[in-house]
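Here is one chain, start to finish.
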Amino acid sequence: MPEVLFQLIAAFIGTVSFSVLFSTPKKYLIQCGLVGALGWGVHLLTLHLAGSSVAAVFAASAILTICSRYLARFYKVTTTLFLISGIFTLVPGAGIYYTAFYTITGLGETALYYGMTSLKTALSIGLGIGVAYSLPPKLFGWKKRS
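Its structure:
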């Protein structure tokens, strides 16, 4: 349990730090951090229950997108303000780095493994966002203009 709490705190701090680099307005930094920590928490929970990294990333990105859409409606800002910052914890940056590293060092089989893993993670993120964006805007409080 302390390890999970430490990971959630690290996800919060990492997301807030990325939000600062992304020039997110200061009044939304806490919300962005909470979205990132929520995403990482869903990832850990799904990984524990399903045992699949792809399923965990899919579920986390879908929940992150839904949460971002609610926050965007509540604060009357764009969804991407929260989504881009919150998705930071799920992006396969290390996998992409290792793909390039092993390609350059001539270890093609290892590079292919990391490349495929990174590709599956990226596709899971995209599908999770797509599924969450396919939900009707009425669910988030958006009203059709007359």
